[in-house]
Design a protein that fits this description.
The protein folds into two domains: about 15-170, Jelly Rolls (Sandwich), CATH 2.60.120.280; about 190-285, Homeodomain-like (Arc Repressor Mutant, subunit A, Orthogonal Bundle). It is about 40% helix and about 20% strand. It has helices spanning about 115-120, 135-145, 155-170, 190-195, 205-210, 215-225, 230-245, 250-260, 265-275, 280-285, and strands at about 15, 20-25, 35-40, 50, 60-65, 70, 75-80, 85, 95, 105-110, 130. It has a six-stranded antiparallel β-sheet. Strand 6 (about 70) and strand 7 (about 75-80) form a beta hairpin. The model is unreliable at about 1-20 and about 175-185 (pLDDT under 50).
Length: about 290
């Protein structure tokens, strides 16, 4: 289905609709406690982009193939095959297709008091989050129900949405899909770092999150792990990089970019210093 682009409108989702199939759109439906208001499937298109200025609803998006770029206040982050993004209401964001490897994207716009409660409960920071997990089947199942719904479909959709939120939450900080294992943080400091893995470390934000001064946070991490905040942050990143390398499906360049290292050389140098092996050697020995 080919449609012309739509200009950004406040409180609306605006996107280039070239090569996009709108599976369902119920903007004028009654506002239920938990409902899918719109759904779509974007086919690879280097010109595709989506802008959310002041949206009223949550948006869940899954990259089935290819690459895209996410822009939010504070930075720009690459998205890869297997990434799922949750955008809370009232948060500005922009998505743009990678020109060389345009993505195939599934998306859902959902709302209602219960959906708002899910977002607040599972993603309390109320910021766009990215998790790597295989959730394509959720999107396919939801769009199928929307296309062939019956009297019981509303309750079924609510249950599937809840399970989708739980799955995404459990996959935060996991390695890319392939081995099918999620990494559950073993402590609150690791959980904070994993939830900000796409950000560069700001030690003041890190300390503020726990209601501590920077010296107090430094003392706590040195006492518990024998490391400064930066050293601990780096060690968590390296552990996640090892999991990514072990899948054998992600290139060293992509991992370096994804985990916000300056470049492949910088990542390789730090990785070898921490593990004794280069990323390529580690990948060869463990994939």
């Amino acid at each position: 289905m080919r449609r012309s682009s739509v200009q950004a409108v406040k409180n609306k989702v605006s996107m280039s609709l070239l090569n996009e199939k709108i599976v369902y759109n119920a903007d004028k439906s009654v506002n239920r406690a938990c409902c899918v208001k719109a759904a779509g499937h974007v086919f690879p298109d280097p010109a595709w982009a989506a802008l959310r200025e002041e949206p009223k609803d949550a948006l869940i998006l899954f990259i089935a193939e290819g690459k895209a770029k996410l822009s939010v206040p504070g930075g720009e982050y690459p998205l890869y095959k297997g990434d799922c993004v949750v955008f809370p209401p009232k948060k500005y964001s922009k998505l743009q297709s990678d020109a060389k490897t345009p993505p195939e994207v599934y998306w859902l716009r959902c709302g209602g008091d219960l959906v708002d409660a899910f977002v607040k409960a599972y993603f309390p920071n109320m910021r766009a989050i990215v998790a790597t997990c295989d959730v394509k089947n959720f999107f396919v199942r939801i769009t199928d129900i929307l296309s062939h719904g019956d009297a019981e479909s509303a309750d079924t959709l609510c249950l599937i949405l809840h399970k989708l939120f739980v799955t995404i939450k459990n996959c935060l900080g996991s390695a890319p899909s392939g081995k099918g294992k999620s990494m559950f943080p073993s402590n609150k400091y690791e959980e904070y770092i994993l939830s900000h893995m796409y950000d560069k470390l700001d030690v003041h934000d890190f300390a503020d999150h726990f209601g501590m001064s920077v010296p107090a946070l430094t003392a706590a991490l040195k006492r518990k792990f024998g490391k400064t905040p930066y050293q601990y942050y780096l060690s968590v990143k390296i552990e996640l990089a090892k999991k990514m390398l072990a899948t054998g499906k992600t290139s060293v360049e992509d991992i370096a970019e994804r985990l916000c290292f300056t470049d492949r050389t910088h990542f390789s140098k730090l990785f070898k210093r921490e593990t004794g092996l280069s990323p390529a050697e580690y990948k060869k020995n463990n994939s």
